[in-house]
Design a protein that fits this description.
The protein folds into 3 domains: 135 residues, Response regulator (Rossmann fold); 258 residues, tm_1862 like domain (pyruvate-formate lyase- activating enzyme), CATH 3.80.30.20; 112 residues, no CATH class. Helices cover 47% and strands 10% of the residues. A 7-stranded parallel sheet has the order 2-8-11-12-13-14-15, covered by helices on one side.
Length: 655
């Protein structure tokens, strides 16, 4: 039997002094929660479920099982190893691949990192997967078993998430108690269009979701493993409000069937504050926290980054409204927008304290690869080439942009001081007290208290330093007097605050080192290499001719499933030849692109080009019952997906 090992890289693999300190504080705090890993490897469990039964699959999470090195001995012999990760795991996944390939085992890599920047991976792996896995992984496995697989598998259009299988946890069933959080994904995509966000670049603006029944089954499975906390890892839970309400109502009933209710955390957008029914449902379903991209109190910056859900409302009032339902906020906050000057740091402190945001996550603005922000700043020459952003997980002290209204040193210094001020115990205490005072609605959550966890928590409290311990005890007494039903949530907030405070010295040390090197010129900063951007004049005529190209390629291909991948090659060939001088489609352009269609079809068919008459299978885009307008919208959507893949490849192209 063929055997596959799926590997999740450790988030803190390096052994530098700063990371040792960070890792030590993280693990000592997690120890009281009896957890080695932060969150279960949902992506790998999904890939395992996509693998046919005649292939044995095991999962190796380095956070739990240890780092893979040349000295690692596996209990089984594997024919293939698959690795996943984000862009900031690149250094580690390359190390893993080197170790495995030296043993003569091919290595495949996928995940958000590859999908965002595939050009960084091709030379280090045998196979790369770009895009969502539901369709291309089974295709690869079939090709691999036949001994004839491609070096690249790309999912051009978005998958139907309802077809995503139940994750398979069997190979790590005995390790589930080692994780702090379970993970379930219900939807992918977000309807908003924030300039800096890579969610829509990777997953689109249409909220695609699983069935409610499958989500409930996944949660039941995790609960049976003893998982007490689950992260609903959606891009935006309320991207489809009707679906979200249906789901959360069912979560309430499901939780009431458990001896002890599971606590949830998720990501959504600030407009949830306008929906009292949704807030009450979230509270009653035992959501212990909501991550929301608030970003900044600077309205001009919110307009700049295209967040109408934030700049068209009273953010402070919305925060108070959400937390009035006993739902603590864990918002993302950003400094370094084009409309930010050095005054933004004091503004952020005042805003966070005034609105009683209990657990802000503060970062500097970055331009993720492929986002609209990245394209805009690249054209302005304000994106820097910082290999550290893909070589380490500690990217919270890095930004790859040149700010507009302050220097980089001013941005780094302001960010450093902002983190220090917000993490202070007295600042935290004031915010938690303020949050407690805002609560007006008691969540209707039924279940028993875990006395074992309570005992462990108080053992943890009395191991704290004196300032942390005194603050904790004051907050617990205050919570017991004013909102005793919030004790568990406040305990979790205190635990996370302790983590942040314990890690702060190493964070500040790293930022100070960065400031010093940039200030003295010891660290040379270079603009990112010149990129090729598609002319603005191309998009409209391209959409107009796309149906013709699609028809020509679809009819010619023997394997119809390769239609969009073939079109990516066709449009890429055209733009690398004519893009730099393109103004409008002329006759020689039509001749070239039609020839490109035929060449690509011949290559896909191993040299054979069928006539249109020989392949008249029903086109999947011609769905019965669609109006002409709907057909046009569907074709435009496919055109956009193809164009996105082409554009991604062109950014590495040198004319």
């Amino acid at each position: 039997m063929n055997r596959v090992l799926l590997v999740s890289p450790d988030f803190y693999p390096d052994e530098t002094k700063a990371r040792k300190q960070s890792l030590s504080s993280r693990m000592s705090a997690l120890k009281f929660l009896t957890s080695k890993g932060f969150m279960v490897p949902l992506g790998l469990a999904t890939v395992a479920a996509l693998t046919p039964d005649d292939v044995e699959v095991d999962i190796w999470d380095e956070a739990v099982h240890g780092l893979i090195s040349e000295h690692t001995t596996f209990e089984k012999s594997y024919n293939l190893v698959g690795v996943t990760g984000y862009v900031n795991h690149l250094g580690r996944v390359k190390e893993i691949a080197q170790v495995i390939r030296q043993r003569g085992i091919p290595v495949a890599v996928g995940g958000p990192g590859v999908s965002a920047e595939p050009e960084l991976y091709g030379d280090h792996f045998d196979v790369i997967f770009i895009g969502e896995a539901e369709y291309i992984w089974p295709q690869f496995i079939a090709d691999w078993k036949e001994g004839n697989y491609r070096s690249e598998y790309r999912q051009v259009d978005k998958v139907d998430v309802a077809q995503s299988p139940l994750p398979r946890w069997d190979s790590i069933a005995d390790d589930m108690q080692n994780y702090l959080l379970g993970a379930v994904q219900t939807t992918r995509g977000c309807p908003f269009d924030c300039e800096f966000c890579d969610v829509i670049y990777l997953y689109g603006r249409l909220a695609r979701h699983k069935s409610v029944e499958q989500v409930l089954e996944e949660i039941r499975g995790l609960e049976q493993f003893g998982i007490a906390r689950i992260f609903i890892c959606d891009d935006n839970l309320i991207g489809s409000p009707r679906y979200a309400k249906t789901l959360v109502r069912e979560l309430i009933q499901l939780n009431r069937s458990f001896k002890r209710p599971i606590s949830f955390h998720t990501q959504l957008t600030l407009n949830v504050a306008k929906d009292d029914e949704m807030l009450q449902l979230l509270a009653d379903a035992n959501f212990h926290g909501l991550t929301i991209g608030i970003e900044t109190p600077n309205i001009e910056s919110l307009i700049e980054t295209n967040k109408p859900q934030n700049y068209k409302t009273d953010i402070v009032a919305d925060v108070e409204k959400i937390q009035s339902f006993g739902l603590p906020l864990y918002p993302g906050m950003i400094v370094g927008f084009d409309h930010d000057d050095v005054s933004i740091f004091d503004q952020q402190v005042d805003f966070i304290q005034r609105s009683n945001i209990v657990a802000p996550s503060i970062s500097m603005l970055k331009a993720p690869y492929g986002t609209k922000l990245w394209v805009r700043l690249h054209k302005e020459g304000r994106v820097l080439d910082l290999p550290e952003l893909t070589a380490t997980s500690d990217t919270y002290v890095l930004t790859n942009i040149i700010p507009k209204r302050m220097t980089r040193v001013e941005l780094l210094t302001g960010f450093r001081n902002l983190r220090e001020r917000i993490t202070a115990w007295n600042s935290f205490e004031n915010r938690v007290r303020g949050m407690i005072s805002q609560i007006k609605h008691r969540p209707d959550v039924q279940g028993s208290i875990s006395w074992t966890q309570t005992l462990k928590f108080f053992m943890f409290v009395f191991s704290m330093d004196s300032e942390a311990r005194r603050t904790t005890l004051r907050l617990l007494v205050h919570t017991w007097r004013h909102a005793p039903f919030m004790m568990e949530k406040v305990g979790m907030l205190i635990t996370q605050q302790y983590f942040k405070k314990a890690q702060l010295p190493s964070l500040l040390e790293e930022i100070d080192d960065r400031i010093q090197r940039e200030k003295t010129g010891a660290l040379e900063l270079h603009p990112d290499q010149t990129r090729f951007f598609v002319p603005d004049t191309f998009q409209k005529p391209y959409r107009a001719i796309f149906p013709e190209l699609y028809d020509r390629v679809y009819r010619g291909l023997t394997d119809k499933s390769r239609t969009l991948n073939a079109l990516v090659e066709v449009v890429y060939d055209f733009l690398t030849r004519w893009g730099p001088t393109f103004d409008r489609f002329e006759e020689h352009h039509h001749t070239f692109i039609n020839d490109a269609c035929d060449r690509t079809v011949a290559s896909e068919n191993n040299g054979f080009v069928s006539s249109n008459a020989e392949n008249l299978e029903e086109d999947p885009t011609e769905t019965p019952g669609l109006t002409q307008r709907q057909v046009v919208r569907k074709m435009n959507k496919l055109a956009d997906e193809v164009f996105r893949s082409v554009e991604q490849g062109l950014w590495a192209f040198q004319p």
